[in-house]
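ok so for the tutorial part 2 we go from a plain amino acid sequence to predicted structure tokens. step 1 is just haveing the sequence, like this:
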Amino acid sequence: MKRVFVILIVIILSFGKGFTQCNPFYNLKEGSKWELTSYNAKDKVTGRQVNELRSLEESSNGWVATIYFQSFDKKDDLVYEKEVELECEDGIIKMDMERFIPEESLQAFKDMNMTVEVDNLEWPSDLSVGKTLDDGAITLSGDFLNMKVDVTDRRVENKEKITTPAGTFDTFKVSYNVKMKMMMSRESKAIDYIAEDVGIVRSESYNGNGKLMGYTLLTKHE
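step 2 — the prediction. this is what the tokens look like for a chain of 222 residues:
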């Protein structure tokens, strides 16, 4: 698969000694590990993601991190793994749009000759209630299949306290719309809850009628 530019958003803890903080929501330390677990609307586990920070390099205006990522299905079988980069520049975290591609689609595409083009989402360092955030998009194109996902209308709704198996966090609640097009279009709504030092601790996905379809929680960090 040919990739133009893909960056992974992550949940990371404990900033490494000697690095100037780039963004208060993402603090880094080499060797950090964290886990995200996904559930359906009936609270049944549908999969999990395990991440490990492999390296961290300071740049003139931020840092670049290398993360090893593994994805497991509901039977806890490994279905996907890769090593990716996360970047912070001038206080802006660039967010991986690949999280909006369904796992089954990623598996179908992984052995194909595909081009991935990304207009990254960004997490600025100065979140505040009422603030609007930039849109993002990802396009996968190949010989037989094409897919595009647009994320729009991102807005910081309010502040909320969120509890997960990893702890209780003071968060900003950010809502947005997701439109996926592959042969036919499908629209949904979503919410991210982001906390200082740990990043996104909870994400929720809703269908076009506002019914909860599933959610993801930060379940472990070390």
